[in-house]
Design a protein that fits this description.
Strand order of the largest sheet: 3-9-8-5-6
Helix content: 10-25%
Radius of gyration: 50 Å
Shape: rod-shaped
Oligomer: single chain
Distance between the termini: 104 Å
Structural class: alpha+beta
Largest sheet: 5 strands, mixed
Number of strands: 20
Strand content: 35-45%
């Protein structure tokens, strides 16, 4: 897409030289005060503007000798405007010699030169990686183009074509880059299943291109919203049932361990209600003394006593 630009350059002249300006105009050209940029393979229009406020040169005849600095044969013209096309990147010294003969036969001359920097404009802007986009997936989007560096990239993602995407400027970019090659890699994650617009703009000193693409992220077949909700619900139900089953089993095991046997510590010396138990303990102590293994000899200690719920008889300890 062309830049609508107009650049002026002033011709150098000595006393009695013709004061004039050369205006360089090209769609897609950015021009500074001392150097004009021009896009290759596009016509550059050069116009000589004679400065003659006194009218001294009114009715004069002119001859312009142009040297475009690229090796092309010198061009002579009696017209104030010419066009030229540069086919390759480079700096070119453009010179023009002016000859004027006024109505009384007075001959005046002038000359000037200017440096023109020819660059390749941005073209063939392409974007890969916006097909088969999945929700939640970090997608690598590759942007490429042809054009002379440095190249400025600007990109933005919007939810529809009627928003920022149609008026992308450097001030509204989500990200902007100035690179030494016409290539850019974008990592972006689309988190919702709806239509997006991706707008990308590439520009350099002599032109720009912009591309707007629709992106339609989808959920994977096994990760649709209803499938995700069902899977989460099934997992939660499974966890609840597992916890409940474990608690039931744990209680049953604890009950079975306490069903027939309980353990209690009693000091039989301190109570008279267990006389038959104390008597049994003394018999054990006497037996141990006779066998010279006094288990309870002369020791007043609590005993662990086990009994069956259905029988008051003391079990052997």
């Amino acid at each position: 897409m062309p830049w609508p630009t107009t650049a002026k350059m002033t011709l150098d002249y000595m006393p009695y030289y013709i004061p004039a300006e050369v205006i360089s105009t090209q769609n897609g050209t950015v021009c500074s005060k001392y150097k004009c940029n021009a896009a290759t393979n596009q016509s550059v229009f050069l116009t000589v503007d004679i400065h003659d406020p006194s009218g001294y040169l009114d009715g004069s005849s002119y001859l312009f000798d142009w040297d475009f600095g690229d090796g092309e044969q010198l061009r002579k013209s009696t017209m104030t405007s010419v066009s030229h096309t540069y086919m390759a990147i480079g700096d070119y010294r453009v010179g023009v010699a002016i000859t004027a003969i006024n109505s009384i036969g007075h001959i005046m001359t002038g000359s000037a030169y200017r440096i023109i920097l020819a660059l390749d404009a941005i073209q063939n802007l392409t974007v890969d990686g916006v097909d088969n986009v999945m929700v939640g997936e970090e997608k690598k989007i590759n942007v490429s183009c042809h054009g002379s560096p440095p190249v400025s990239f600007c990109w933005i993602v919007s939810e529809n074509l009627t928003s920022n995407a149609t008026t992308t400027t450097d001030e509204r970019c989500l990200q902007s880059y100035l690179l030494e090659e016409c290539r850019l890699a974008i990592d972006y994650q689309f988190n919702e299943s709806k239509q997006y617009s991706l707008s990308i703009r590439a520009s350099n000193d002599v032109g720009f291109e912009r591309l707007v693409l629709n992106v339609d992220p989808k959920f994977p077949a096994d990760l649709k919203p209803e499938g995700i909700a069902g899977a989460v619900l099934a997992i939660l139900i499974g966890i609840v049932l597992t916890v409940y089953s474990v608690s039931i089993i744990t209680r049953q095991v604890q009950k079975s361990r306490r069903r027939h046997i309980e353990v209690a510590n009693f000091n039989f010396e301190a109570s008279s209600s267990y006389e038959h138990i104390r008597e049994h303990a003394k018999q054990l102590n006497n037996r141990a003394a006779n066998e010279k293994t006094p288990l309870l000899l002369d020791r007043n200690i609590p005993l662990d006593v086990r009994w069956d719920h259905g029988n008051n008889d003391v079990l052997n300890v």
